[in-house]
Structure formats: structure tokens, C-alpha cells
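Hello again,

I reread your note about wanting to compare the complex against the isolated chains. To keep things tidy I'm splitting this into two emails, and this first one only covers the full assembly. Below are the input lines as submitted, including protein chains and any nucleic acid or small-molecule components. They are followed by the predicted structure of everything together. The single-chain runs will come separately.
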Amino acid sequence: MKRKNPGETTVEQALMELHGELISLEAEFTLEDLCRSCMLQSDHIVALVQEGVLEVHGEDTTQWRFRISSFRRVRTAMSLQRDLGVNLAGAALALELLDRIAELERRISS
Amino acid sequence: MELKDYYKIMGVERTATQDEIKRAYRKLARKYHPDVSSEKNAEAHFKEVGEAYEVLKDPEKRMAYDELGSQWKSGQDFRPPPGWDAGFEFSEGGRGRGRGDDFDFSDFFESRYARQHGGTRRGSGGDSHGSAHAGMNLQGQDHHARVMVELEDSYTGATRQISLRIPELTPDGHVLARERTLKVRIPKGIREGQQIRLAGQGGMGLGDAGAGDLYLEVAFKPHPRYRVEGGDVYLGLPVAPWEAALGANVQVKAPSGTIDLKVPAQSQAEKKLRLKGRGLPGNAPGDLYVVLKIVIPPADTEKARDAYRQMQQQFEFNPRTALGEKA
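Full-complex prediction:
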């Protein structure tokens, strides 16, 4: 079996400077992008949108556009369900409370 | 390799029931879950707890562990006998538990691969996993990580060395956490929440498919002097009461260098002075806001107290008129 492992780090590679592509906060991603990157089937993402976990622009699923911040929300929602045994609604509640904590912490520091 | 005391990690007795172990796990998982926790080293704790639970939740693995433990002396190097963890990573894990009911990273990892491929490989024996991929082309998984950078890095651009722990599927079908160190260019003008995509630096692909990408989400380390909001930077500037009242020219150390700032006369506390374009650089550069903090000199000498008494006599001033008191 052939395998690619470009992530294999040797000393030389570790010292090589990597220049990435900067993704702006306004960049838009499709449902397909999100599914592929998070390795989830679309029904998982649709459920997250219906639960109000993800903000989306566009009418139907083919026109849905997501922001880059959705990627982390998806992963957090999935890992909360997996690791803590909460259901989707529970994960959504936790995410909302985490948002509020972040907002309050931001206000305290200002 | 050191044998960890899984019971101690879980905070339970060696005689604990499976239910007690599950309860302890749930409690610790909520406490240390990296997405929820504000504890120090939450992620390391969480992994340790997950590892302990992985073994203790399963009566067979727990028994194997208990037997090993009895032969092991504290501080001694531990080498597990060959085969004790055979099938450990991808064991069926059945016993009627539903998904989401248990922390099982390997199951999750595996099922994600399986889902992507449109089928399920759960239940196939540990040894056959490697060959299950034969002839399959599957793009590698995208990896995501958060990196903390200094605010100053956004002003100048910088090269930062970052360390990541990345779970990887080994050729024989095990999941291992691999430490990676990368040297990454942090572009000038980067904002919090923006991401850097490093193409091909994610999980390895199978067959002829390429590797996934690595996304680095950028956050700024807390700074003692500056606060960032989008592209704007806020800086609290302490001034004396007479500087605020009479106006002053002060030198301010800003992220882009020292600035000569004119404090206008009649400034009140919390007055914001905007320095256009001195925030984070970029196509639409942010602004720098200098927020005046009036600091009252201590009245700790007779001379100082006299000065305050003199002010008291000179001013017809009630600071509480806004509360409805008479001027």
C-alpha cells in the first residue's frame, strides 16, 4: 500500500520556513468545504445549522456560505458530544455559554 | 515508559465500580475538556484522564492493567509484555455502548475515515485494518490548531516556531500522537481569528490522494499594555490631573514605535485619542486609541495636602452633579 506522509518532520524540514495562505475573516466556505475539512457528512452540519450553532448565509444548502470561524465551532460541537456525552442541544448550549464567557472576559480585560 | 496509576488519575479507589469510574470520568472530562476548561494544562489532564478511562471503562483492559500493576514497583521502568494491548486502539468497544457515550478517540478517528469512505470498518479485527485501505485513494484529514502570537508580530510580521501534537494513523492501524515542530511565517497585519492555511501539512493521504491542510487559527497573547479589538489597538495612558486639565505633550511607547502625543486641555478621564492608521497594519489599517487614565498624586506630605486644600478652596466643584446633586 502506498502512503504519503508529508507531515513527517525531519530536522531540515522543521527549520524550513513555511509560508501559508492567509484566510481573511470575510472568506466564505461552502457546505462541501466544511464537510470535507471536518470529515463529516452534510447531515451533521445541517443539524448544527438547525440547532443555531452555526451562522449561515444563503437560502438552501447548495447556496449556504460559512465563515472560517465555523470550522472550530463544528469541531468543538463534535468533541463536546463525543467526550462529554452531551447531545446536540447540550453542546449548543455549552457553545453559547462559552461565547458569553469569552465576551465577558473580553469586557473585563478592557 | 512509566506505568501510570490510572486509579489515582481518576481519583477513584481500586475497588471502584464501573459506574463510579464512569461518573468520575464525566466529572473530570467536563473539568478538563480543552474546549471548556480554563484550568492550567487542561489538555494534558484531559488526555491523561481519557487514557485512564479508556482502560478502566473496559473490564477486560482493566483486569489486564490490574495484573500488570501488581507486578510493577514505583519508579521502575515499565515495558508492557508483547501483545497486552493487541487490538487496543481499534477494539470493537461494543458492549452496547452508543457513540458519544464514551471517550474513544480511536473509534472516532476510525469512524470518520469510514464515513468518508462511505462504509463502516468497525468490527473488523485489529490486524486487518492496514489492508482495509488497500487500493483506496483518500485525501488526508485537515488539521486545525490554535497558535498564540505576540501583538507585535502583527505589526512587523514574524517567523515563529510552533509545536503541535497531532494524532496520526500509523500503517498498522494505530493512532499515535506525534509531536511536530514547524517554523511558520506570521504575515504582517494578521488579526485575531484569521487563519493561516498550510497546504499539504495536514493528515497524510491514502493511496494517490494528497495530504490534508493544516489550519492555524491565530490568537494574540494577552499583553500587559495593549488590548486589541479587530484591527484597533487600545492603550491606557496614565496622566497627571494637571496634564489632563492644561494639556501636555507626552511621549507614548506604542507598538509601532514612540509617538509624540498631544493631550488636549480640558481632557476628562477615559477620553480616547484616536491615532488613525496606527493600529494593526493591513489594507485597511486599524487605529490606535490612547485612553487617558488620570492618576491622582498621593497626598502623603503636608505640602501635598496643602496643594489639595488650596484646590478645594479655589474650585466650585461637585463631581457628583451627574448623580443629581447640586453643583
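For quick reference: DSSP finds nine helices and eleven strands in chain B.

B.
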